[in-house]
Design a protein that fits this description.
The protein has 681 residues and is mainly α. The chain is built from 34 helices and no strands. The model has no long low-confidence stretch (mean pLDDT 87).
Length: 681
């Protein structure tokens, strides 16, 4: 604080000296020396006094620097070193004419290599940032100094400490802004390394948004990127930005999925963000003939980056982007929809387009274009992206033409599963798998059962398909099971929506039956004798198949479906008016609980999905009590962190249920003292 006040005082004296000397020159006129008793003599005395005061301030500063800073910047305690170096920042800012010099800055530069104490390195970089920012006419005196230490600042962009990274990039930005960086004669390798070090931070997921934005600002200044905002030039600027991100930021090996980080960094720069939000320029650029992914691999990568930049920008401002994107979406899907790597990003643009306020024929046309793409791809990521966009369109419009188009798409997607297969076996298998993936994606977005008169036939086909694939050890059974779970949720929603109209109890929903059957058969495929496993009894006597990753994934998917069933279709719903059609028969539910409880006790599957199944419904039957007991005993033994949430859920079901589960858990044959103690607690 003392040094700051002295530096500020010296600088204030400098400012007063400028005025005093100007007054002295005016008073002297053509004379070289002031006459006794004249105004010039008074002015001369003022100048002398000010110079003497400045000299005293500077001498005091030098004593403070030599007596404290030059000794304590290497103190044994990192916090002392950091405080001392941090103090120099204020001195440089308050008195750059004195302290923005190599004589003083070299100390700050030396601490950039201190291994212990990140705060010391960060303070050193901030001293240099302050010096470069204040360099002004003194920059020539710092050229050799900057040439020596600029590469080290580039290395610090990858310091282990985020504060050091930020300080180093800020110092480099100041070095660029004062004009010194452009004048440094860095070697070709040094220059490339410095750029690479900073550019990599733009898409570093571990970095803060501020660091990424600072790194991008530095890179754009270094590349002299000029974002013209007129219509013709905006397209060129967007394309240049895409090339810069693709070539300089991502490089040859960087995944294009990181492009969104570059977009966020650009949008965080107020003076530049408007370029990425020029929606008319975007749609014009993406529809140009010379922006063609099919031309070459390099072009495909550039188009991918451009689409991702546009999609991320639209996501952050969908209301203003929607009108232009809605108009262009059909053409963009036609142009890029044949490439699955690009299709998912175009579908993301569709999700933003769905926010358009207009709901006229253009709205329906855009949604139909998305639905058409569902029928032509079997890529999981593309289907999921299309489904999200379709869900957004359906949620924002009640247009009958749109609903009809959605129903038609669902019917076409389900055909291979509902009709007798014909043709080559490989072709039939591929068609069936593509159909399952399309239904799975659509079921996450729209009411598939409603489009298929309840969806019973589709659910039965999916259940049979899931069982067949699980028996073959095919991981694709997972998609069938996930589709079944989604169908159950739609049926549950439909039941709840119509609960006020409930009259006589209706029969069990066939989608529930089919889903329960498919899940049970998939779980039974873990055993060497699936048929015996489905009949119940003591499952622990049955041997399991040889474990593999596919079987584990299918088992996890089946457990997730049983959890959905447990929540949406447990036997207790039989007692609730209007929900009877959702209630699983006790014997069916018991079969599922037995399979899940055995998986839990054997310990060959993770506890979490088993716990989800148990927690989804109360222990209202003997089978559910047994399942709860198995889960609680396993949690007590293997996962104490899960016990509190399970206990809380169980406590809400009533004291009798808690007692039954507790007693059942204590019957476990392999119960040890740790488990007993945890259960008692």
């Amino acid at each position: 604080a003392v040094g700051d006040r002295l530096a500020e005082a010296a600088t204030s004296i400098d400012d007063r000296l400028v005025i005093a000397k100007r007054q002295l020159r005016a008073a002297l006129g053509s004379s070289k020396t002031p006459k006794k008793g004249s105004k010039a003599e008074t002015c001369q005395q003022t100048v002398d006094d000010l110079e003497e005061a400045r000299t005293k301030c500077d001498e005091a500063l030098d004593e403070l620097f030599e007596g404290v800073f030059s000794k304590r910047y290497r103190d044994s305690k990192p916090e002392v070193r950091a405080a001392v170096v941090k103090g120099l920042v204020g001195w440089v800012q308050a008195r750059p004419s004195k302290f923005a010099a190599t004589k003083y800055l070299k100390y700050a530069a030396w601490v950039l290599d201190f291994q212990d104490g990140a705060a010391v390195r960060a303070s050193g970089a901030r001293v240099l940032a302050a010096a470069f920012a204040c360099a002004g006419d003194q920059k020539d005196t710092l050229r050799d100094f900057a040439l020596r230490f600029a590469p080290r600042l580039g290395e610090m962009a990858h310091d282990v400490d985020p504060d050091c990274q930020a300080a180093a990039i800020q110092a480099l930005r100041a070095l660029k802004d004062c004009g010194l960086l452009d004048e440094l004669e860095l070697g070709e390798d040094e220059d490339a390394t410095l750029r690479d070090n900073v550019y990599a931070k733009i898409v570093d997921q571990a970095c803060s948004a501020d660091i990424r934005s600072d790194a991008l600002a530095f890179a754009l200044d270094l590349e002299e990127f000029d974002a013209n905002t007129s219509q013709g030039d905006a397209q060129r600027s967007l394309r240049d930005l895409g090339r810069f991100v693709e070539a300089s930021v991502l490089g040859d090996d960087g995944p294009t999925t990181l492009t969104s980080l570059a977009a966020d960094a650009f949008l965080a720069l107020p003076e530049r963000a408007s370029l990425l939000r020029d929606w008319r320029a975007w749609v014009a650029l993406l529809q140009r003939d010379d922006v063609d992914a099919a031309a070459s691999q390099e072009n495909q990568r550039l188009v991918d980056v451009l689409l991702r930049l546009c999609a991320r920008s639209a996501e952050t401002d969908s209301l203003s982007a929607a009108p232009a994107l809605l108009e262009a979406l059909p053409a963009l899907l036609t142009k890029y929809g044949g490439d699955d790597d690009l299709l998912q990003t175009v579908c993301a643009l569709g999700e933003s387009a769905s926010q358009a306020s207009t709901k006229d024929a253009r709205y329906v046309k855009a949604c139909k274009a998305l639905l058409d793409r569902v029928a032509t791809t079997s890529d999981d990521a593309s289907l999921n992206a299309a489904a999200k966009a379709i869900r957004a369109f359906s949620a924002n419009s009640t247009d009958k033409k749109l609903s009809k188009a959605v129903s038609k798409c669902i019917s076409e997607a389900a055909k291979p599963l509902l009709e007798e297969p014909a043709g080559d076996n490989d072709a039939v298998e591929a068609a069936l798998m593509a159909a399952v993936k399309r239904i799975q994606a659509l079921a996450q977005a729209v009411d598939v059962p409603a489009a298929l008169s309840g969806g019973a036939a589709l659910a039965e086909a999916l259940a049979a398909r899931a069982a067949q694939l699980a028996d073959d050890g095919d991981v694709n059974a997972k998609a069938c099971l996930e589709a079944l779970g989604a169908l159950v949720l739609w049926r549950a929603k439909a039941c709840l929506d119509n609960i006020d109209d409930a009259g006589d109890a209706e029969p069990l929903d066939p989608v529930i039956t089919a889903c329960a059957d498919g899940a049970a058969r998939a779980l039974a495929c873990r055993y060497e004798a699936p048929t015996l496993a489905l009949k119940g009894g003591d499952l622990h006597d049955l041997e399991l198949r040889e474990d593999d990753e596919n079987t584990m994934q299918v088992t996890r998917a089946a457990l997730d479906v049983v959890a959905v069933l447990a929540a949406a279709a447990h036997p207790g719903l039989k007692e609730r008016q209007g929900l009877e059609s959702m209630a699983l028969p006790v014997e069916t539910d018991a079969q599922l609980c037995s399979l899940v409880a055995d998986a839990c006790r054997r310990g060959d599957v993770s506890l979490e999905p088993c716990a989800h199944v148990a927690a989804a419904a109360p222990p209202e039957t003997p089978a559910r009590t047994d399942l709860w007991a198995a889960v609680v005993a396993r949690a007590a033994k293997d996962d104490a962190d899960l016990l509190p949430s399970l206990s809380s859920r169980l406590a809400g079901t009533g004291p009798d249920d808690v007692a039954r589960v507790h007693l059942k858990a204590l019957e476990a044959e392999t119960l040890d003292q740790v488990t007993a103690k945890a259960l008692a607690k």
